[in-house]
Design a protein that fits this description.
With 60 residues, the protein is mainly α. It is built from two helices and no strands.
Amino acid sequence: MFGIGMPELIIILVIILIIFGAGKLPEIGAGVGKAIKNFRGATKDEPPKEPEKIEENKET
């Protein structure tokens, strides 16, 4: 995998953990996952899907 072994991956993950902190890692992972999904969708011949909208219950 690109010449990166397990020790290098562990060092990279520790550096990311130090820089961003444990609280931000799920958000970063979700963003990366969405980016990969969008990239894969863009490389196919299918039209892109609309992102899902989250509707908030507004109390008035």
